[in-house]
Amino acid sequence: xxxxxxxxxxxxxxxxxxxxxxxxxxxxxxxxxxxxxxxxxxxxxxxxxxxxxxxxxxxxxxxxxxxxxxxxxxxxxxxxxxxxxxxxxxxxxxxxxxxxxxxxxxxxxxxxxxxxxxxxxxxxxxxxxxxxxxxxxxxxxxxxxxxxxxxxxxxxxxxxxxxxxxxxxxxxxxxxxxxxxxxxxxxxxxxxxxxxxxxxxxxxxxxxxxxxxxxxxxxxxxxxxxxxxxxxxxxxxxxxxxxxxxxxxxxxxxxxxxxxxxxxxxxxxxxxxxxxxxxxxxxxxxxxxxxxxxxxxxxxxxxxxxxxxxxxxxxxxxxxxxxxxxxxxxxxxxxxxxxxxxxxxxxxxxxxxxxxxxxxxxxxxxxxxxxxxxxxxxxxxxxxxxxxxxxxxxxxxxxxxxxxxxxxxxxxxxxxxxxxxxxxxxxxxxxxxxxxxxxxxxxxxxxxxxxxxxxxxxxxxxxxxxxxxxxxxxxxxxxxxxxxxxxxxxxxxxxxxxxxxxxxxxxxxxxxxxxxxxxxxxxxxxxxxxxxxxxxxxxxxxxxxxxxxxxxxxxxxxxxxxxxxxxxxxxxxxxxxxxxxxxxxxxxxxxxxxxxxxxxxxxxxxxxxxxxxxxxxxxxxxxxxxxxxxxxxxxxxxxxxxxxxxxxxxxxxxxxxxxxxxxxxxxxxxxxxxxxxxxxxxxxxxxxxxxxxxxxxxxxxxxxxxxxxxxxxxxxxxxxxxxxxxxxxxxxxxxxxxxxxxxxxxxxxxxxxxxxxxxxxxxxxxxxxxxxxxxxxxxxxxxxxxxxxxxxxxxxxxx
Length: 799
Known about the structure:
The protein is an alpha+beta fold. The protein folds into 6 domains: about 1-40 and about 165-190, Phenylalanyl-tRNA Synthetase, Chain B, domain 1 (2-Layer Sandwich); about 45-160, CATH 2.40.50.140; about 205-405, Phenylalanyl-tRNA Synthetase, Chain B, domain 3 (3-Layer(bba) Sandwich), CATH 3.50.40.10; about 410-475, 2-Layer Sandwich (Phenylalanyl-tRNA Synthetase, Chain B, domain 1); about 495-695, BirA Bifunctional Protein, domain 2 (2-Layer Sandwich), CATH 3.30.930; about 710-795, Alpha-Beta Plaits (2-Layer Sandwich). The protein has 20 helices and 39 strands. A 7-stranded mixed beta sheet has the order 27-30-31-35-34-33-32, sandwiched between helices. Helix 6 (about 255-270) packs across helix 9 (about 375-390) and helix 13 (about 495-510) runs antiparallel to helix 16 (about 615-630). About 35% of the residues are buried.
């Protein structure tokens, strides 16, 4: 929520508090702040001007030459704007001035004619298109609504000498979605008085019974409905001060009546709606559920298909509004409107949330209703609208209000124990200090023996029991003032074996230069298309969410590769030259389709990396370092040519006995294209459930060898399709107990080796634990290995 500080000061005495202190103290009292913006900080030499003359440019058909009075002088400005007229008041940036985006304006010539400044549009003044007043041409010059003093600083016209605080309002504090709500927080935080909002509309005529009637058919979904009538309405743009406040709060000015209802909603947190009374059949309002399959056109001119779960506002013949969400096009306020019916209602939060989600329509009103609103605010808000109408002299207030409120909300009285509060907070606050804090929050406290009877204001929907007061007292007392103590007890915490393995794996990967990432468990169904998974792939057997946030997060993941590639793609497209990451998280495998029971949650480790110095062996080496640290031996790589996500010639399965631990390789070019990555990416995905079972963290001591080793090299010529692993397996099988190790140190293809063949060179180390080997023993075993290689794979020694 955007809160202009100048507006906030109308309700709470914070005049002498610096913006930095304001920000810091709000944060410390529990109000999270996203940004603080000073609107006029980068604006310079923009003033009010009046157009005196407009003439055509002699050498340019689309340009005009104007004379503009800016107070101390009349300046000439050449412009291409087509929405200006003589006599209009406009914003003008003078020679040497600066726009909010930092652009500096200097005197110059346009097609040979001197121009000493520039007329400003709303966008050039820093007003976003989405909040630009509806009557303003967004592509033209901003036309001021009244005759301001010439030469007046535009910052004073638009209130740009102001700070705007963007608060992140949590769902449990809907009362803070208003200026008055944040004023209450400011009053409690800074221990300053709250300025009372006195509402008084005195000049009332006629009687509402002669104008309208209201019938509520569902009191569970509509707890309160208040209606008032205003006649002889004059529809026109609202005054500049009101437009300024609406725009700074993120809302677009429409016309004076709509602007007043939006203004009061921002002020008090109660959404309101104005109907053109002459469009309501029978001058009647009926609150009822929609007909199944009913079609309705909302104010945004979109046709919506409804069902019987949606609450509607109807007249004697037709629906005129979606309750709590948006009004209908058939009863909107227009320039010809003369009599309006004001609605200030309290709708069921769950119903509004469901309607908004079902129709894909979220508004400022629905955002407030779906979190919960104090029904006692309804009459205050509608009277405040009437007061502003009277203040602006744009209509006459009809006497009386229709107020249907069968189940009145009373203030809760909750019993709390001061000692319990102190025990939980580790404080030693006196009863007087605690009472003072609660009263600063607008609560009334009655002391009864060793307990407090606290009357909670009806707008605090989040306070329902004793424990809720702990945070309230703590945040006003100051979280930073709470003492730091260690927990007391006899028990000691310890990690499970699985947690130890996970932490060791993470530490090892961090040490190898990989960053840990954490991504959402729910993904888009398109993920499997991006990964080039075939339609019949078991990966597409997913758990679908019944109530997803959207299509992009509608299924539970069965692999982490999609999440990993999204992260790598985001880094690559932001010009990060090298990225190495890992994620250890759950995948969700359904036991059956359709899903009948909870899915199997399988822990998976995924590694991903790209960069100039990174290749297949980088990710392979990282996996081997991890396995070594976890005590996992005897794992093998098997060529994998059928995995659709990986390059068919650069992919392998990792196996351990009869188990497949995972897959490792270079991502297929088609997949990289899907993720907009224009470099090679390497990924490994490992089944961590198996890792838990085969990890061996105990270390067995082996005595250092006493006897020397003998080394023999051999260079073999074999066919191209022979894998190195085949050679090593044959050597180990025939090397007996004295073959200590075999290491590949060269692979060569060239002129000396015939086409279709390759040369592979190994270093073989022989050693016996109980004696020094002789040449004859080693030669015998070495020749046995060579003979086995010749028989099994037709290998020959390279000449």
